[in-house]
Amino acid sequence: MLDLAEPEWHLAEPEQDELSLLIALPEAQSSAQYPCVAHEQLADTLVAGDLYDAVLVASALTEQDRVADLCAKLGTELIIFEHPTGDQQVLQDALLNITDKLFSDEMPSNLGLQDIRNLKLNADCIFAFTSHLAALDFMATQTIGELADVVYLAHGHSRLNDLKAGSDALEAQLPENSFICASLLSSGRSECTILLGVRKD
After folding, report:
1. Total structural domains in the chain?
2. Fewer CB atoms inside 10 A, N or C side of the chain?
3. Is residue 4 part of a domain?
């Protein structure tokens, strides 16, 4: 569980090399920081041979089996984010916010790709939200399975006290053995970013 009372933040394990990510959205968005392709271009982009630490995908793919096979052969982590109603704007904002944080120097610098990998490892699916209330409502009413871990980004000019309050509300819905990685992203799109792992029954 998250404990912001501790004097030190848990720092993400440092990457050995510069982080390389590929972002896949229903429609490609230009970015100066990282490559972003449309869903339909993802498989061909992977075939082209560039190596990535991970591919972050907003919603399920029509060629998901092929993409998963390509990623396995390339040693690239495939991480797919879902939304309970398939809201593509929420998925896009959440995915880009997470990516912005991974490339950001903003303190606290306590979120790394390994945290996202761990979220995937401990869950069967990852749901993304950009509203605190929407995430809490889903956590209270979902019947998919057991709630797992959470990655939470507070946006805007939030203070550590605000971050802790938001984390505490999420923690109250989680099993005792769950983990919350909470951080700040002042430039985040929408209210906040919440990634929630769920283990299916």
Report:
1. 1
2. C
3. no
> Does 13 map to a domain?
no
Tell me the C-alpha distance between 59 and 17, whole Å.
Answer: 28
| CATH number assigned to the domain comprising residue 161 | 3.40.50.1440
- Give how far Cα 40 sits from Cα of 47, 57, 64, Å: 13, 12, 11
- Give the ranges where 103-157 is alpha helix by DSSP (H): 113-121, 132-141
| Length of the chain (residues) | 201
pLDDT tens readout for residues 135-190: 999 999 999 999 999 999 999 876 777 788 889 999 999 998 899 999 999 888 88
pLDDT (tens digit, 9 = 90+) per residue, 88-136?
A: 999 999 999 999 999 998 888 899 999 999 999 999 999 999 999 999 9
The answer to the question of residue 2 being in a domain is: no
188: nearest Cα among 116, 99, 97: 97
Dihedral sign, Cα of residue 23, residue 81, residue 154, residue 164: negative
